[in-house]
Design brief:
Blueprint: E1 2-10, E2 19-27, E3 41-44, E4 57-67, E5 76-83, H1 94-109, E6 112-123, H2 157-170, E7 174-179, E8 185-191, H3 197-218, E9 220-223, E10 238-243, H4 245-248, H5 253-265, H6 267-272, E11 296-298, E12 305-307, H7 309-314, E13 319-321, H8 330-342, H9 357-367
Parallel strand pairs: 1-5, 11-12
Antiparallel strand pairs: 1-2, 3-4, 4-5, 6-8, 6-9, 6-10, 7-8, 10-13, 12-13
Amino acid sequence: MKIRAEYIWIDGQKPTAKMRSKTKILDVKDIPASSDDVPRWGFDGSSTSQATTDASDLDLVPVCAIPDPIRGAPNILVLCEVYHPDGRPHESNTRAVLRKSLKKYQKQCEPWFGFEQEYTLYDKDGIWPLRWPQGGGYPAPQGGYYCGVGSDEVFGTELIEAHTLALLDAGLAIAGTNAEVMASQWEFQIGGPNATASTAADHLWLARWILYRLGEHFGITVKLDPKPIVGDWNGAGCHTNFSTNSMREENGLDAIFKACEKLKGFHKEHIWVYGAHNDERLTGAHETCPITDFRYAMGHRGCSIRIPAGVAKNRRGYLEDRRPAANIDPYQVCTAILETVCGKRFNPGAFRYFYDEKHRRMMRGLFD
């Protein structure tokens, strides 16, 4: 008997990396007990924007293996890091950078992470949001779609239900789902209590892959554009919830305020890694703070950092960073927050591989 192992990795496209995968057939006797037992593999990096044709061989190193909820047991999904054949992490391997930060701060800060992944459903051609009027028309204005009920307000429920069940079957740290403010826009939450940076980020990448693959089955395209539709429509973010041991302790609110002040001091550096085209989303409208500003407050969704009302009441808990766009690389975001809050400073230069000239021009135009 043989099984299928789907090897999944992050490519080198700039400024926003995409997901790739391919299938390896394993003998059932070789079914791994953990990701450490999954065999390494290789791929053609020249076809994924990660190598040139004269030196195209790159390695896939498994880091997380879970049951495949689409093909079913005993098949597995295998999330991988990308390495050079000589054993060096590839320049696009942002998880390797995060591992260095975790080595410094995991024991000291005991950080927990959670992601609120917003996304937009499109028809299978990927041109216009799902069930929006054909020919470029618009549905009714925003107001009734957020957490709505009924086929006239909520589009694509069949995919969301299948995705939620798949994440549960796979053992991923899903915490919830909801329809979002714009028609055909949805959100799922990953991570939460006891979810380390690597666990939450790994699970977010795997949850995205499962969503894309199920979308193929339903004829629905999923996109993470920060501003899917120009005009009076909400953008799509990936709000990031974060806490340390000191924030969760009695009177941890003081530690939350201190963290906010640290984040304020490195606002520009965080915007570098908080998603390409995020300037189109962070305008000050549609529940956002302008991209050049930094504000934090209790329960305020127009701030950069929101401190939930329940946290303020209990004087302990977590903060919500509302700046990250839907298309973030969670490894970069986790690194930025860890280095800023648990360390002394964050330098986005570790991720310069992904800064294309358009992204550099955007940053210069905003902050220089």
